Amino acid sequence: xxxxxxxxFQLTPAPGFIVALYLSLRWRCxxxxxxxxxxxxxxxxxxxxxxxxxxxxxxxxxxHVGESVRIYDGCNLNALDGEISIKDHSTFGPYMTIYGxxxxxxxxxxxxxxxxxxxxxxxNFSDRDIYISLQGATGKGxxxxxxxxxxxxxxxxxxxxxxxxxxxxxxxxxxxKVPDYSVVAVVPARLIKKR
Length: 195
Known about the structure:
Blueprint: H1 2-11, H2 16-27, E1 30-31, E2 36-38, E3 43-45, E4 50-51, E5 55-57, E6 62-65, E7 70-71, E8 76-78, E9 83-86, E10 91-92, E11 97-99, E12 104-106, E13 111-112, E14 117-119, E15 122-123, E16 137-138, E17 142-144, E18 149-150, E19 155-156, E20 161-162, E21 167-168, E22 173-174, E23 182-185, E24 190-194
Parallel strand pairs: 1-4, 2-5, 3-6, 4-7, 5-8, 6-9, 7-10, 8-11, 9-12, 10-13, 11-14, 12-17, 13-18, 14-19, 17-20, 18-21, 19-22, 21-23
Antiparallel strand pairs: 15-16, 23-24
């Protein structure tokens, strides 16, 4: 019984509204009481940021949010065994997802629209005698540089770097590096033009 209580306290040391109040006062930001926060002591939030009713799991090396960042309702940020780092003035639309097993770095003034997914991991599947779900996962990491706009319903896969000032058109699947100031679209994403 004590072990279960200890584990529960490490995940969320208090009821949600108390965690939200603590984080809001500690970091001088606004965290919604409806936000689901796990491992709150591995979460840093810059001044003036707003965390709406979303889910933040700051396991691994944690989640680090810069100043004046907006994370809207339904977003899911899960650091897994890695780290998610977000610089100042970035915005994440509703129901956007980030998995940070291989670590995710997001620059300043980045806008990621609704229902987009950033996945810094891949399942291992080389052994045909073991179920894929039992073979674990590996992650190389994802880097999204400053001043990037990611349209709605996009997917950015592990190992990708999105260059500064780039635009990812809605519905694109990014599988390789995007050069600076590029506009990419379709599946898999390819260069349409330069800005």
